[in-house]
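Session log. Operator J.P. requested a structure for one protein chain; no other inputs attached. Running the standard single-chain path with token output.
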Amino acid sequence: MAIMRLGRVQIRVPNWEKSIEYYKNVVGLIETYRDENHVYLKAWDEHDHHSVILEKADAAGLNHLAFKCEKAEDLDMYEQKLIEYGVAVERIPAGYRIAEGEAVRFRVPTGQFVELYHEIEVVGNGLPLVNPDPWPDGLVGIAAPRLDHLLIAGDDVEGTTQLFMDVFGFHMSENVVLPDGKYLATWLFTTNTPHDLAVIKGPDEKLHHIAFFIDDWNELRKAADILARNDVMIDAGPTRHGITRGTTIYSFDPSGNRTEFFCGGYITYPDFPTITWNTDRLARGIYYFEGEINDRFTTVFS
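Structure written below.
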């Protein structure tokens, strides 16, 4: 019984039509359903019905993030553990959103809403399960194969970090420590990637970025070309992180939500030792090549 992975994000997009265009034709996500106020999307190599939900709204930001559990009974187990931890929980009924079963919803100390779920319609990745080719026909834009991770912001970094470690068994791959010994940021994993979720000091309830995985450095350079060709604002990169060792490029969607395209990084296991960065080396940790951070990275959230 376990959380398997980050399963979906629902983000608010006031610039509705242009944001849909960005996620479908630049990021290369595939639309699976829409209603008046939502568009459901998946990356091409994901089998579940959706991993990204765009929500028509007056301001950009995060509605919620959600983790997929291995078994349906995991919801009961985690609901009880959350209650014992002192966290208020809510049951979201099956069918509340298209193609989804029931979910457990709660709020973390940094203010974001998180859901746990198991059941979701499986639609496949466009390839057969016997003798498949490496990718399907018809991919567009960057064609990111999957959702990778999230970076959320808030004041109580310690509280959110401990909740995920104590209740859900996440492990910490890296952290940045302030001179007073408190966390400026933490990187947490439950799979074998460098991070499934990161938490950084900042305004409560805010989103720093959502990240999509891409295969290699060549694909990252291609992503930069596609972003530039479509006049998308590039925040930083292509470059390399010291933290996670991954390579990266950041951009903004037309509504002001930051998106990252991430590749590489090390493999983690439950016995992976935690790496600590001091604040005087943070710039090298964030942008290893440049060794300096642009102001937007630490001040712009949605």
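Operator note: Residues 126 and 136 are 6 Å apart (CA to CA).
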